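INTERNAL TRANSFER SHEET
From: sequence group
To: structure group
Subject: SpoU rRNA methylase family protein

Please process the attached sequence and return the structure record in the designated field. Keep the field labels unchanged so the import script can parse them.
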Amino acid sequence: MPGAQESEAPESEVPESEVPEPQVGVGPHPEPWPQDPCLDPELLAQGDRRNVVDEFRYWSVEAIVAELDTRRRPLRIAIENWEHDFNIGSMVRTANAFNVSGVHIIGRRRWNRRGAMVTDRYLSVHHHPDASDFLAFLAGVGSTPIAVDNVPGSVPLESATLPRASCLVFGSEGPGLSPEILDAAERIVAITQHGSTRSINAGAAAAIAMYHWGLQHPA
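Return from structure group:
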């Protein structure tokens, strides 16, 4: 009709179910396969879709752990697990990224592994029934407990010098660290905040603290 506006033809849309998902990792390795004891024959045949760096493509978990053991940083991470904190998994994943010497779970043995995204396979995860058992372990390996909590008496993390052989200890989201850990810590550090919330997510706090340690002790 004269004067009528022409309607634009609708753009063709590809159904979401038909959009190919991006491929992670690599496919099957071309034959002949390299003769390397680190390589996993099943991964060579089927491809390696794990979230690992290229250096470890097609490597078995055991071979990756053995190699990481030769490069472990002297940093340790500990989490008091009194409330089954869902942040523990993300803390473990970050600890893997920094290749720490060990992760220590104090209190409840069970913890939420979902956030770890199977990175706990590549770490030494220790369980301690209570604070005294944990502190005895640290004394035996010469690691200094550093509490991370925004309580009275804490010093700003950004101005603190952390020992090379440190164990950064974090509490559950909300209640924070137990009095036993706070009393035994060589020092207490807190992440300076400028907003209205009293505390930040425990998983985020752990990542910040590990990064701060890494700046002071580069590989």
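Handover comment: The chain is about 25% helix and 15% strand. Helices lie at 41-46, 61-69, 88-97, 131-141, 179-184, 202-216.
Transfer complete.
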